[in-house]
Amino acid sequence: MTGNEGMPSSASMAGGASMPGNEGMTGNEGMTGNGSLQRTYEIKELADGVYRLEGHQGECLMYLVVGTEKACLIDTGMGVCDLRQTIRSITDKPFFAINTHCHIDHCLGNNQFEEVYVTKESLPDLESSLKEQRGMPPRADEVEDKQVFETDYGFAEDGDTFYLGGRTLSVVFTPGHTPGDICIIDDKSRIAFVGDLVTAGSHMCHMLAYVRDMAFTTVSIETWDRSLRKMQGMQDGFDWMLSGHDEDLLGHDVLQRTIDLERSILDGTAKPYHPQLPEMYGGLVCWEVDDGEMSIIYHEETIFDRES
Ligand SMILES: [Zn+2]
Question: 137-165, pLDDT tens digit by residue?
């Protein structure tokens, strides 16, 4: 794999495609009746050796892929509960984590891991997310007995592979939701873990730099289009996609529909309207296109690449 170059020990955030506007977060999410945090996540086996860890409010869905030698957790949520204990209830193999991107709902559990891989392009978001914890639920490092590590970060790059024993995870660099997104393809289950690059619902990803005073990074729809097409060009290698916010397996058709919708923005044929956004987007004038099931909220300054 890639070397473990030094990384910032901590990091302004960016919300997920369906990241809620923080409204309704009381700081008690994940609390049990007696006031202590729930220790584990709900687990569902989706395919042989592929488990979904269901996050609490505001957290992404996390996926554990288990091989005969190692296990890998794809995204770490917000660290609301004890990820290590959850993983240990599934497998006794050594484990590490990868972030599909470093929005706050995907990476705040990193400090429960000794070894985490991110892309270099995600570092600004990681730095921001680790600093940005206002209004968030209690984190697992506030739970007694939970282990918190000085995480050793490594860099994941396009084409990197992680052999887990009997299965290999391949990294595909796919900037679009953020500048540092990756998708991860598991050759055994033939599932692509796509983070927030593709979802079946609302895409809200090209305007985040404007949200409050948070130091988000943003990407053009043009760049996102290239990454979606890149994934489409590789779709012989996967049958399904799992996103950070959809409970269902997504088929290739979702990729095509996403491309169709964003193409309509790029070629000016979209019929956009002003969406009602949560208060956290106050003052932001943006647009939404909607095909009835899938929607894209975007800011007109982020349609095209800056240099074009
Ligand atoms: Zn995100």
Answer: 555 555 555 567 788 999 999 999 999 99
Span from the CA of 10 to the centroid of ligand 1 (angstroms): 18
Q: What is the DSSP letter of 279?
A: G
13 CA distance to ligand 1 middle (Å): 9
Distance 100 CA to ligand 1 centre (A): 9
Q: What's the gap between Cα 40 and its chain centre? A: 20
- In the reported structure, the alpha carbon of residue 17 is separated from the centroid of ligand 1 by a whole-number distance in angstroms of 5
Residue 1 CB contacts under 8 Å (≥ 6 apart), including other chains: 117, 154, 156, 160, 162
Q: 112: which DSSP letter?
A: G
Domains present along the chain, CATH in parentheses: 42-302 (3.60.15.10)
What is the number of other CB atoms lying within 10 angstroms of the CB of residue 75? 29
Q: What is the CA radius of gyration of the chain?
A: 18
